[in-house]
Amino acid sequence: MGSIIVAKRVSKSFGKKEVLSNINLTVKEGEIYGLIGPSGSGKTTLVKILVGMDSDFQGEVEVLGAAMPNMNVLSKIGYMAQSDALYPELTGEENLQFFASLYKLKKEERKQRIAYAADLVKLTPHLSKKVMAYSGGMKRRLSLAIALIHNPQILVLDEPTVGIDPELRLSIWHELSRLKNEGKTIVVTTHVMDEAEKCDRLAMVRDGKIITGGSPSELKNQYAVNHLEEVFVKAGGKNI
Ligand SMILES: Nc1ncnc2c1ncn2[C@@H]1O[C@H](COP(=O)(O)OP(=O)(O)OP(=O)(O)O)[C@@H](O)[C@H]1O
C-alpha cells in the first residue's frame, strides 16, 4: 500500500504557545487512520494542516506526493470540518447542489451523488427544509454528505459523529468501512474509544504530540491492556 499522506516534523504555534510539536505520521492508501485525543490536544489544528487549509506551520506535509497546500490535490479530498460550513437560508438539497456545482459534477452524476450522500446520512426526507431549521445532528449529517459529494479519494473527517445518535453513528461507521473497502483513504478524529477501535491504525495525541501509535490490537498488546483507554493512560496521556 502506498503512502497517501505523509507529515514530517510538523510543528505549529499560536503566538508563544506551541500546539503541535514534531508530528510525524504516514497514512496509507485504503486505511482508516484515527487521531484520538482529548479536547484541545491539537487534532483539529493538525487536520487543517493535512488538508492544506493552514500553510503556516513548520515541517513538511505531502498528500498524494504533492507538498500541501496544492490546488490539484484539494479536489481529491473531502473535508468535514468541526464547525459546520453551511448556508442556513438554503435548503439541505440546495446546499448539496451548491457544493456539487463547485466540483463541476455533470447533471446526472450530481443527481446520483446527492441522492447517495443524502441517503447515507438519512436526510432524504428533510432535503427540502431550510438548514436553519435543522438540529445540530442534522447539520453534522449534512456536512458529512457534503464532504462525500464529489466522491473524493481521501476523506478527512473532524469528529464526524458528534451529536449523532448511536444508530446512525453505527451506520456511518459501516459506510466508512465500505468506502475503505472501495479503496478510499480516511482520516478521522475522535475522542470516542469505541470509534478508535474501528480504525486500522491510530495516533494518540496529547498536548500537541503523538504519544503512541499503531493498530488497536498492536497497541493493546504492546501495553498489555484490554482497552484502548488504558493504552492512552499508560502511554502518558492520563485520562481522555
Ligand atoms: N486560532 C487559534 N488561536 C489560538 N489558539 C488556538 C487557535 N486554534 C486552536 N488553538 C489552540 O490550539 C490547541 C489545540 O486546539 P485544537 O482545536 O487543534 O484541539 P482539538 O484536539 O481539535 O480539540 P477539540 O477536540 O476540542 O476540537 C488548543 O489549546 C486551542 O486553544
Task: Write a compact overview of the structure shown.
With 240 residues, the chain is α/β, with parallel strands linked by helices. The chain folds into 2 domains: 1-76 and 154-240, 3-Layer(aba) Sandwich (Rossmann fold), CATH 3.40.50; 85-152, no CATH class.
Average residue pLDDT = 92
Distance between the termini: 31 Å
The oligomeric status of these chains comes to single chain
Q: Helicity level, as a percent range? A: 25-40%
Tell me which ligands are bound: adenosine-5'-triphosphate
- Unreliable spans: none
Strand content: 25-35%
C-alpha Rg (nearest Å): 18 Å
User: How many helices?
Assistant: 9
Q: Please tell me the CATH architecture of the largest domain by its name.
A: 3-Layer(aba) Sandwich
CATH H-level homologous superfamily name of the largest domain: P-loop containing nucleotide triphosphate hydrolases
Structural class: alpha/beta
* Tally of DSSP β-strands: 10
Task: Return the string of H and E elements.
Answer: EEEHEEHEHHHEHEHEEHH
* Total separate domains: 2
List the defining traits of the structure above.
240 residues; alpha/beta; Rossmann fold; 2 domains; 6-stranded mixed β-sheet; 4-stranded antiparallel β-sheet; 9 helices; binds adenosine-5'-triphosphate
What is the element layout, followed by pairings?
Layout: E1 3-14, E2 17-28, E3 32-36, H1 43-50, E4 58-63, E5 66-67, H2 71-74, E6 77-80, H3 92-102, H4 107-120, H5 136-148, E7 154-158, H6 166-181, E8 185-190, H7 193-196, E9 201-206, E10 209-214, H8 216-222, H9 228-237
Helix pairs in contact: 3-4, 4-5
The structure holds adenosine-5'-triphosphate.
Adenosine-5'-triphosphate binds at residues 14, 19, 37, 39-45, 82.
